[in-house]
Amino acid sequence: MGDFGVEADAGELGFDAGRLARMDRFYQRYVDDGLLPGWLLAVSRAGRVVHLSSYGHRDVASGRPVETDTLWRWYSMTKPVTSVAAMMLYEEGAFQLTDPVSRFIPSFADLRVFRGGSDVKPVTEPVTEPVTIWHLLTHTAGLTYGFLRAHPVDAMLRARGFEWTRPREYDLARSVDAWAGVPLLFQPGTEWNYSLATDVLGRVVEVASGLRLDEFFRTRIFEPLGMTETGFHIPAGTEERLASLYVPAPGGITHAKGLSQGPTEPPRHLSGGDGLLGPARDYHRFSQMLLGRGAFDGVRLLGSRTVDFMTRNHLPGGADLESFGRRLFGEVPFEGTGFGLGFSVVEEPVALHGLASKGEYGWGGAASTVFWVDPAEEVTVMFFTQLLPSSTYPIRSQLRALVQQALVD
């Protein structure tokens, strides 16, 4: 994969190279202090890479370094890919955003909402409106995650085998039906909560397209964009390129036992919420498609107006996540940040208390990865490492300031 490297002089594209180097020194300290195993960082402007650096190890025990072709678990950075897939089908007339999910997944027809009681004896009421595809795209469906450990409904999911993983014998269809048997956290559309919604959306993509999710991704997104090494499992012969997964430990980090084996065969459950693995090069190509408002390298996946629509704040009344969301995790700051169709969207940089452009959008993954697209500056940024959970360090807000301070045009 020798075609991923620096493509332009930083100075020609409005960056100060000396200031960009601050990023490397800053994140090298994380590794030297034993807080991260290793990382890869890429900054692009106007479609050309101006800064690409890496440091540390993809596997500490073996001493294998991070390299440009290292394979990373994307976790929730899978969600924008699934959201793009859904909007491709929307553009083809497969559904309206206001369509009930039950049109594609019958088990979603008679959902209940948690009102009180406990995870063992919940008190519930029927939904007042059906969960729609728009609710899934915006995380306003009332779904949750077992690993959040913030609500009795989370415990109900864990009791059914859904925390960081899912029951081994379940495929996506069976998992979605199991979630439909658990009450929603709130009435659809009344709050925002980070959730399994994008996994459900992946099942909608399967039913609406007649393709398994891995086939839809491969034929409609990955092959057209040249994302040749991304998928739900590791290509044969590339096992050693996969970065190992770590968790915090007293005085540093330790290997995340039980989660570190990457799948070498297609998994039974194809997770549109957190299932993809791939190299930074491939995610870079995906981000350039977004920056290109749906097109990159002669290939168009979405109409330009569709990408504009997806990357606007869809929360009711222009609310931010702080006022409309349940504050539970570290993928993005909540103040001044709205949510679109699959992406967080910076609405008010001043409220964010951090350097950013209005309209910047992106998302992060559970292993402390992040990407964003800044249409105002034509900048894209990616940071890859493998440390669970993403709330361990303020890597993302630090990175935003470090990128912005290097822009000097």
Automatic annotation (TrEMBL):
Annotated Beta-lactamase-related domain residues: 24-403
Name the InterPro entries for this protein: Beta-lactam-related, Beta-lactam/transpept-like, Diverse_Enzym_Activities
Q: Which Pfam families match?
A: Beta-lactamase
* Keyword field contains Hydrolase: yes
Which key words are in the record? Answer: Hydrolase
Q: Which GO terms describe its molecular function?
A: hydrolase activity
Ubl conjugation listed as a keyword:
no
**Protein name, please?**
Serine hydrolase
In its UniProt entry, the species of origin is given as: Streptomyces sulfonofaciens
